[in-house]
Amino acid sequence: MFANPYPMRGVLTSKVFLGVCCFVFLVACNAIRVREGWDESYGPVVPHDTFPTDCSLCHISGDWHTLKEGFAFDHEAETGVALLGAHAEVQCLLCHNDRGPAGVFAGRGCAGCHVDIHKGTQGALCESCHTEESWRLRDAIALHDRTRFPLVGPHAAAACFECHEGAELGNFAGLDPDCLICHADDLARVDEPDHMAQGWVSDCQRCHIPLGWKPAVFGHPASFPLSAGHGGLDCLECHEADTFSGLSGDCVSCHLGEFQNTTNPNHLSAGFSTDCEQCHTTSTWGNANFVHVPTFPLTNSHGGLDCVDCHTGVGGGGGGFAARGVGGVFAGLSTDCASCHLDSYQSADDPDHVAGGFPTDCTQCHDTVGWQGAEFNHPAAFQLTNSHGGLDCFDCHVGGVFTGISGDCVTCHLGDFQATTDPDHVGAGFPTDCTQCHDTAMWEGAIFGHTASFALTNSHGGLDCVDCHVGGVFTGLSTDCAFCHLDDYQGTTDPDHQGAGFPLECMQCHDTVMWEGAIFGHPATFPLTNSHTGLDCTDCHVGGVFTGLSTDCAFCHLDDFQATDDPDHQSAGFPLDCIQCHDTSMWDGAVFNHSPTFPLTNAHAAPTCTDCHIGGVFGGLPADCAFCHLDDFNATNDPNHQSAGFPLDCIQCHDTSMWDGAVFNHSPTFPLTNAHAAPTCTDCHEGGVFGGLPTDCASCHMDDYQGSTNPNHASAGFPTDCTVCHNTMMWEGAMFTHTPAFPLTNSHATPSCLDCHTGGLFFGLPSDCASCHLGDFLATTDPQHVGAGFPTDCEQCHGTTGWQGAVFTHTPAFPLVQGHSGRSCNDCHGSGVFGGLASDCVACHFGDYQATNDPDHAAVGFPTDCMQCHDISAWENGVFNHSFPLQGDHGNLSCTDCHIMPAPAFSCIDCHEHRQSKMDDKHSDVGGYVWASSFCLDCHPDGRD
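Below the sequence we write its predicted structure tokens.
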């Protein structure tokens, strides 16, 4: 583009301009020739034949190249074409020259003036990449991020031609994104370590990032993380001689010398395991911390000891290993208390542990808190409760005997047992198990729980023991009532218990509340109900007979049975089981529950028994309707039951409410609903044929099927199962429920069948949207479905409610929520590319990343994973979740207070203890200490001491 040395600042009317052009043509421009000194970059010489002949209208006299001061030309007002951006600054002659009318070339768009260096490979829409402001590529980095190689870090600053050799000619295709295409020389130069020798010739991104080739960061295997002291090392400090594979992860592979040289304690002689992680960590080699075996945890007094206090070879007093000179033995030692404390055991005399035969399991009484003041938990078989709890050991363990003592009460209380006279325990033969009556709360006032087989309830409860246990006899007594109450049994005369043979089990009628007023519960086989309850026992039990009596009604009521003549029970052969009709409420007015096989309902309920049971016959009568109604069956002719072969099972149509107006429940296989319910039987059952008729619709409606033309059922191959579309309500206006594979919803529900089933085809049609809507798919331009490679599965965006206003649910991998929602597709998919776009933030926001200067993301090498600080709610005010707790004084600092170097570097030592010598002296006993911020963090991960 060229700057215009003749700016247009005013406006001439069209008439003045045309006049000027004519004047110039007539007066000054008679001959057309190339002027001397003409710059060919301005284009060919303008033929002024259309300009006014008065050259002074535009030019100053004496200088053909200079326009008059104040000359201006409003291009938009005069020509209708606005010159915007860079077009407003170019020479007029670049467009208006002797090629021909400028409007012809302007009509061709950009191609009218600008040669397509892309040769058609980028399409005809130049404005998709360029603007009128500048020919430079618009949003080149954002566009590049849609490829397989997003431009990040130094890649974003590189000129296109540095990678795309044909960039000046528009050739950007065909590059391999592999790092070595550009960085083969870097690979060849690296010798620390030698990448080529190691075979590291691919997958550079394992260690390098686009933000900077150095320093490389390698993610060490999870089986050997570089933590604490391991983290600050150079690779070659461990990988000597460029050996990177096959190395052992065991500590001794590097630290065997330290293991062998350690003398406090001596690891070799003590047989320590070479698994250094049992005691050491990567933070510091010194001050190892060993977690003692779970079988002997170091608690309380054991916890404050040094290892050599127990594991020592130095002779000394105090017993234990020290006395015996264990000699640095750490394995195979006994965990028994006596292995260290045998001297304490043997010297204990209060009580004397040895003489008392105490076990050497000291934990029964002692713990690691303190050796003195031992507490013994008495065995569960003899717990020290109440009066036993306040005694001294020697009160019971006389003579220092602690083992082999019986837990029976009489061991200590035999004298009390023998001296007791109320009652005499010895004379009565009481057992020596004192706990049956006594407890440890107090010896006097013993309470005996009487045996469950003879509980002392009510009147038995208020007696003294000797009231029953006469003569001091407490064992071997019978629990039968008669043992004490035989005289009462024999003396009872109302009724005479003995004469009536009543059993001696008094509990059948009497209880311990009171002896008089006994209540007998009559046997369940003959409960006394209603009229039976008001009788005296002798009313039934005549002659004092109470046993062996029959429970049959006839045993008492045979005379009543024989005397009954309405109906005559005897002649009719009625059974003697009176309860079939009578109950204990009243004898007369018996009610017979007719056999369930023939219940008396409706019209059957009104007749008297003799209306059906003629001649007094009650047994053996059939329950068939025809037994009584055969004449009615034979006489019926509407329809004729006999000729039609109707069954004699009258209840199929008739009931006991009334004989006429029978209702037949048509077979469930062909229910008479709607229009079928109105006809008479003979409308379908012509000729009196009622059995064997088919139930399919076509048997009656075949003419309707063959005569249907909208649609033509026969030619379309519709099934003759008319119920698929028709029902018994009406034949016209059939409704077909479309197959579940293609339900007719919303807009699909309104068309007629033939709108889709053209040509009478109803079977085998595809159900995919494109089979009907392919034309819509091909014609859609907002966005263009074909060019964008959209699938023809229209249901992803469209529904049957309306074709327009499609809604696409964005992929779950990139949901459109919060700040991403509410945008049009073209905001992101502006070039019509919908597939294969990167989902990382920087694909769209790399410009934001580069433009951010608080802090400067690019300069400090922030990662392009924007989600670490930003979210889609708001781009501004990013919040970073710091791994180091920002608390206390750290909470009020700005990022640059600590990160004074490019991130992620930080500095602790610039704020804390600036003098290295002081810190070196303070950490002199810390193994692996280094004067560096990263080492500060290893030991002070939360910033505390």
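The beta strands are 52-53, 59-60, 63-67.
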